[in-house]
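Input record (one chain):
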Amino acid sequence: MELKEVIDALNELCEDPSLPKNIRHKIINMIKELKGDCDNSLKVNKCLAELDDISSDINIPTFIRTQIWGVASMLEKLG
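The corresponding structure, as predicted from the sequence alone:
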C-alpha cells in the first residue's frame, strides 16, 4: 500500500457529486497534506483524525461513509 493509492482514493471520492461541499473541502485539504513534505506518520495520523471526524458527520450519505472508512483502513496500513 502506498500513499499514492490513498490520494487516488480521496480524489475519486471528491469527484462524487453527492459529497457535501464542506466534506469535499476537507478532503481536498487532506490530499494537500498527504502530498506535503512532512513525516509520513504525522501526515497519516492527521488524516486519520480528520477522516474520523468526517465519518461522524450526519449529513453524508451512507455509501460515502463506507468509502471514507475504506480510505481510513488504507491509511492505517501505512501508519
